[in-house]
Write a structure and sequence with these properties.
19% strand, alpha+beta
Length: 177
Amino acid sequence: MRNSLVQQNSRAIEQLSTFYIDSISTDAVRGPRLVVMDKTIPADESCEGAHRVEVFFDGDCPLCMREIRLLRRLDRENRIRFTDIAAADFDPSSYGKTQAEFMAQIQGRLHSGAWIQGVEVFRALYSEVGFKTLVQCSRAPVVRQILESSYRWFAKHRLRITGRCSAETCSVSDAEA
């Protein structure tokens, strides 16, 4: 049992190798927390305001919008900034990314400026609305693998699932088949 915990912790440390601990913050409600920052992202690219995380979501995706509406209801402390990548005035180049990158999978940006994507975005969002225990459970090796592979499949097929396919958005190349 102890050896498996040591192995799991070693793998977690390897995965965090591009991050460093910036500080330890204490919150009266949530207790002590490590503030982790990505070494590769300059801090001046942080999300604006008092928001702790910014989520970039596809406002044309009905399944995505269902989740966003839930998160908006749960975000009573205004910790999340919601940015609709389907909005007419959204400019992906102002974030140093392409629309295709934003459409490929969910993107997020921490207050520090660190970019996150995929399941890690959901972990950050649900941590901010009070589901930290559930988020910690999602990091267990088997659960993590299931969640990440399921999300990758969903992200790849979400346009088809939501009935928004076109010749250029849902074509499958020979390399992918």
